[in-house]
Design goal:
This is Enoyl-CoA hydratase/isomerase family protein. This protein is α/β, with parallel strands linked by helices. Helix content is 56%, strand content 12%. The protein has two domains: 2-165, 2-enoyl-CoA Hydratase, Chain A, domain 1 (Alpha-Beta Complex), CATH 3.90.226; 169-226. The protein has helices at 2-13, 44-62, 79-85, 113-118, 120-129, 135-141, 153-165, 169-182, 187-204, 207-226; strands spanning 21-23, 29-31, 68-72, 75-77, 89-93, 97-99, 133-134, 146-148. A four-stranded parallel sheet has the order 1-3-5-8, with helices on both faces. Helix 1 (2-13) packs parallel to helix 2 (44-62) and helix 8 (169-182) packs antiparallel against helix 9.
């Protein structure tokens, strides 16, 4: 699956027409993580090769230039969380659950992205105990960006996608680039990254058209209010 994710996101990177990616799963479970039974009879080199493939997949998702929205409809366990956290944000149904039991399985995982998503102490508590975290707690901790009833999940995702696609594609790509790069540096360097993106946007986009559309919307609103 990780190799297929790498192939898929390589294709996405070579397809400029793609403006958004929705990563979702079929069935009652989003992802149950690694099948530990696969390691029976294997050696350390085999395990390390599998883990390297996994991290390449996560990196391909995280490096995607366009917005990547993750939809979690059910149980998410272990490496499934790594896949989800590699996306830009998570929309989850109220039937979703989250568990990071790597230490209980005698392995190591989710130690980096999880702490960056919810904080060091909370990540340690989840990793140490391996307990199941309900979707509402994941929302409260910031792991999930939006929580919706299961019956409304598809329509909510569609609405989010439509809203993202309504924005100019270059501005959206540059915004993602600035947030991602700025999160890895100090404020002054982050502002320099944003200024460079602003300059590129002015050179390569129809920014005057955006100003005109905004003025038209505001003007229309004022007329309605006056009436």
């Amino acid at each position: 699956m990780c190799k297929e994710l790498i192939t898929a996101f390589d294709t996405i990177a070579r397809t400029p027409e793609i403006a958004i990616v929705v990563l979702s799963a079929e069935g009652p479970v989003f992802c149950a993580g690694a099948d530990m039974k696969e390691r029976e009879g294997r050696d350390e080199a085999w395990v390390m090769a599998r883990r390297r493939a996994s991290f390449r997949a996560y990196d391909c998702i995280a490096a995607c230039a366009v917005p990547v929205v993750c939809v979690v409809q059910g149980a998410l366990v272990g490496s499934g969380g790594e896949i989800a956290m590699s996306c830009d944000f998570i929309i989850a149904s109220d039937a979703a659950s989250f568990r990071f039991p790597e230490p209980q399985w005698g392995t190591v995982g989710a130690t980096q992205r999880l702490q960056r998503a919810i904080g060091v102490g909370r990540a340690k508590e989840l990793l140490y105990t391996g307990r199941v975290m309900a979707a509402d707690e994941a929302l409260a901790l910031g792991l999930v960006a939006r929580l919706v009833p299961s019956a409304s999940l598809a329509s909510e995702v569609e609405a989010v996608v439509d809203r993202i696609l309504a924005a100019p594609a270059l501005a959206m790509r540059l915004t993602k680039h600035c947030v991602d790069q700025g999160s890895r540096t100090d404020l002054a360097s982050g502002i320099a990254i944003e200024m460079s993106a602003i300059e590129r946007n002015l050179q390569q986009s129809d920014w005057r058209g955006g100003v005109a559309r905004f003025s038209g919307i505001v003007g229309s609103g004022k007329k309605e209010a006056g009436a």
